[in-house]
């Protein structure tokens, strides 16, 4: 949980983010990052295979991860990482446990990020009566499944990051419960399990907002200049449904395809997830280099 606190390592997060923004901004200026939808199957199983020496981060998640995928490659490249994504709209942690186990056996990720926002739609969420849970029962189910995923990863010696999502328009209380759950699991399994608030630059402290102040580089890209015309401008970070970063008005919300236009919310989420993975690896590497401090 160290990078979400006011500790020295949290300041490291700021340095990493500034460097990442500079490099990613250059990619935008050069036209190498479009934010267009990527082709692929659902659930998505995409990765950047260009640099096999880069640190491998596997991100598991739902529609918010799907919508952030077009930005992972540039964010990860700026930090010397490569990202493989296992994500689909509407899924929950129980859907991803099997994927994680397979990847740990076959793909050897160096760090895992779990980013789930509270869906209760798929069959694996059903209870013994075949009912989908709601309210606090969703959080209880998430707790059991996330604990299982964290155990599988840490037993394989792979660091595990739990990412709290940005709060949705009408989901403040649910967000608070889910956020508390993720914090508690990370605290009980530190240092190999860490927590990050991946919605900090989208819905700070669980407070929904449709817009945020423009990031510095957004002043220089055509797709954002309609809103980011000058310093102090604001830009949309959420779609009209109050849940996603962008939405397909012709389809059901869970389908939530990748954004066809630039999405500041999706980009910020990508930065948060990949930066958290990078910081976790760097933190554990630093810890292991200190005599007597390596985790057992």
Give a structural overview.
With 296 residues, the chain is α/β, with parallel strands linked by helices. It has one domain: Rossmann fold (3-Layer(aba) Sandwich). The protein has a six-stranded mixed beta sheet with strand order 1-3-2-4-5-6, sandwiched between helices. Helix 4 links the parallel strand 4 and strand 5. It is globular. The relative contact order is 0.17. The N terminus is likely disordered.
Topology (elements, then pairings):
Layout: H1 8-29, E1 44-47, E2 55-61, H2 63-78, E3 81-87, H3 93-106, E4 111-115, H4 136-155, E5 160-164, H5 172-189, E6 193-197, E7 211-213, E8 234-236, H6 264-288
Parallel strand pairs: 2-3, 2-4, 4-5, 5-6
Antiparallel strand pairs: 1-3, 7-8
Helix pairs in contact: 1-6, 2-6, 3-4, 4-5
Average residue pLDDT: 83
Low-confidence stretches: 1-9, 34-42
Q: Rg, please?
A: 18 Å
Assembly context of the chains:
single chain
Query: Tally of extended strands?
Result: 8
